[in-house]
Write a structure and sequence with these properties.
The protein is mainly β. It is 5% helix and 46% strand. It contains one helix and 27 strands. The strands form six sheets. Strands 2-23-20-25-18-15-14 form a seven-stranded antiparallel β-sheet, with no helix packed on it. The protein has a seven-stranded antiparallel β-sheet with strand order 3-4-5-12-7-10-13, with no helix packed on it. The protein starts with 10 loop residues before the first strand and ends in a 37-residue tail after the last helix. The relative contact order is 0.20. The structure holds manganese (II) ion.
């Protein structure tokens, strides 16, 4: 996913200290991610920047992609984050500058660690199911891990847990003693929930949590949610009641409150204006040189048919960390 919205403003993410259990409804907004693709973005939001290290939550579809051009996001760079691609329906072809070529499919986790720098593309393959429905999430890397070597993980054998009427798939972290093998760098949890009936989730009270609905209607701690809305639940909960009148589906996201200030601009997660400027210039230099030369930070995406994305212009004002309000 490439963030076009950041062409207009930068986002400084500062999570609040632990607040205890709360209900805070976050309205998502429709955002174009390319000429033909629209997503619903719930994080970052002016009232809620992060949930644990989760700093970006896009959901999309179900969209008909047979008659449309489908998804096409040309090569673009990332630093300082991990991307989680998760599909409910359809397929996406992922390529990256490490040489990975992976068909992203429902029920399988694709976790890309940008670390010090990676470039990737995402597009609907020629032969594809009629619908595309899924989510793309970003995880901010903490200081000690934000310059790690880039890495791409495709995980097929995710732990699955049945809790009453809830069928849970653990994407990252741990639920009810079942841990995902995917590598993350801060205390974090991400779970897909198929809400067949009513059930109760065990939670880590040290984590803050949120739920975002991807299909149908889901009742979380008594609150009825539909797609396009995120319910922030705060910290201090050891369990959560979830049910659905209509076989809904949702994502549970949580983690230890992230105590670092992060600066998000375009597809970069950094800490300072200088770092953003440097990453942008580096990408544009590599793009202009046709990704030739030694010691590329990002590199070409082999096999993608078409040009890479140019970075948007920096705003005239200096990007700087500011408080949440
Ligand atoms: Mn991307």
């Amino acid at each position: 996913m490439s963030n076009r919205e950041a062409q207009r403003f930068e986002t400084v993410c500062v999570s609040e200290s632990a607040v205890g259990p709360v209900h805070e409804l976050v309205e998502g907004r429709d955002v174009p991610i390319s000429k033909t693709n629209l997503v619903n973005r719930t994080l970052p939001h002016r009232d809620r920047r992060m949930v644990g290290a989760w700093c970006f939550v896009d959901t999309y579809g179900p969209d008909a992609v047979i008659t449309m051009p489908g998804m096409r996001v040309p090569p673009h760079p990332h630093i300082g984050l991990q991307t989680v691609s998760w599909l409910l329906e359809g397929t996406i072809e992922h390529r990256d500058s490490l040489g990975s070529l992976q068909l992203v499919q429902p029920g399988e986790l694709n976790l890309m660690t940008a670390g010090r720098g990676i470039a990737h593309s995402e597009e609907s393959p020629q032969a594809r199911p009629p619908q595309l429905h899924g989510a793309q999430l970003w995880v901010a890397l903490p200081e000690h891990a934000r310059r790690v070597e880039p890495r791409f993980e495709h995980v097929v054998d995710l732990p699955r847990v049945v809790l009453g009427g809830l069928r849970a798939t653990v994407l990252v972290g741990e639920l009810a003693g079942e841990a995902s093998p995917a590598q993350v760098h801060s205390p974090l949890v991400g779970v897909d929930l198929d809400v067949v009936d009513q059930g109760e989730l065990p939670l880590d009270p040290a984590f803050e949590h949120a739920v975002v609905v991807t299909r149908g209607e889901v009742v979380v701690d008594g609150e009825l949610l539909r797609p396009g809305r995120l319910l922030y639940l705060g910290t201090g909960r050891d369990r959560l009641e979830v049910s659905s009148p209509s076989e809904g589906r949702c994502l549970l996201l949580g983690g230890e409150p992230f105590d670092e200030e992060i600066l998000m601009w375009w597809n970069f997660v950094a800490r300072s204006h200088e770092e953003i400027v440097e990453a942008r210039e580096r990408w544009m230099r590599e793009l202009d040189s046709g990704f030739t030369g030694e010691r590329l930070q990002f590199g070409a995406v082999p096999g993608f048919d078409g040009p890479a994305l140019a970075a948007p212009a920096l705003p005239t004002s200096r990007l700087r960390p500011r408080g949440r309000r």
